[in-house]
Amino acid sequence: VAPHANWLRRAAISYAGRVPAAKPDTWFVYMARCADCTLYTGIARDVTARIAKHDAGRGARYTRGRGPLQVCAVRRCASKGEALRLEERLTRQDQITSEVVELSGGRHRRE
Hints:
Elements (H helix, E strand, L loop, with lengths): L4 H11 L11 E7 L5 E6 L2 H9 L14 E8 L2 H24 L8
Antiparallel strand pairs: 1-2, 1-3
């Protein structure tokens, strides 16, 4: 189990549809499930507004046409740098998991 998997499980359990209130200098890492069951990881100061941008087709290129997005987990970070590093680790871990599942002939989607 990857080191970040534990916080992700806790965050998903405690999330329950709420996005934490932010201070002006606070950054969040979020994971969202697209309509095609893929995961997208991103950072934002205001997660609710960022998800709305994704859903409107003005977010990341990856999420265009894959909406609506459902937020799975949110984690508050102390700085933008910390948020970027965590986002990179989570993205890399999801890619590795997808490759392993694909090589084994399985499916990575949750349905």
